[in-house]
Amino acid sequence: MPDRLTSQPVLVVATGHTLSLALIAGAELLAAHDDPAPRGQADALLPAVRAMLGGQRPARIVVETGPGSFTGLRIGIAAARALGLAWGVPVAGVSSSLLTAAPFLRDADTPLWVALAAPRGQVWLEPIGRPDGRSLADPVALRPGMPHAVAADAALVGTGLLPGVATRLAGDPPCASNARFLTGCLGDPIARYVRPADHVGA
Q1: Residue 35 · residue 18 · CB < 8 Å
Q2: Is CATH 3.30.450.20 correct for 9-97+174-181?
Q3: What are the residue ranges of helices labelled H in 88-143?
């Protein structure tokens, strides 16, 4: 069910592409930790959370739900749920695409395409509505050479490359601190896989 962020401190956990953490209160960024290494989240996540919070306890947790690394997403979601249970705070989910697109949602009313680099040269592609941040279609995995429906002048964000699309607003992976730009479109902390979970490559 969609939910909204509040002015209470929120811990944001993103592990589907990098290790990215943030503590936000409404639109204010209180603290952040970003590690570009895509591996080792299981060992690094909880110490990084503890160091960033410095003894604070958030009022809620928001965790990245994908599309992203199968293992990375599971690590982040499991940790977020465990911390939520231990602290007695609610846990919500936010898609990787929305965490990438969030800073650009208010700039126009046309769709924003999110392209995220995926294994074996693939791209996870998803259109996001502006300014509300709704997913306009399920994410798809594009293999190298596959055609796509993104116009050459479309607004594009993310780490994935799309042939023929020139307008790239940003080339960053999902970032936890971008959650401060969101006003809604949160959901349950359940992983969003482009393919069934046994297809770990996509």
Answers
A1: yes
A2: no
A3: 96-101
Contacts of 28 (CB under 8 A, 6+ apart): 180
Q: Where are the domains of the chain?
A: 9-97+174-181, 100-170
Dist. CA 105–CA 131, nearest whole Å: 5
pLDDT confidence of 80, banded at 50, 70, 90? very high
The number of beta carbons lying within 10 Å of the beta carbon of residue 52 is 16
| pTM (two decimals) | 0.92
What phi-psi label fits residue 190: left (phi over 0), alpha (psi between -120 and 50 degrees) or beta?
beta
Euclidean distance between CA atoms 61 and 80, whole angstroms? 7
Strands 140-142 and 123-128: antiparallel
Strand partners, 186: 3
- Omega before residue 163 within 30° of 0, cis: no
The DSSP output letter for 73 is H
